[in-house]
Amino acid sequence: MGEIARPRLAATSVTVGSPTPREAARFWARLLGYRVAADDPPGPDEPAEGGWAQVAPEGDGPGLRINLEHERAYRPPVWPAAPGEQVATQHIDVHVPDGDLDAAVAWALDCGARLAGHQPQADVRVLFSPDGHPFCLFL
Question: Would you say 90 and 14 are in contact if contact means Cβ atoms under 8 Å apart?
Answer without folding.
Answer: yes
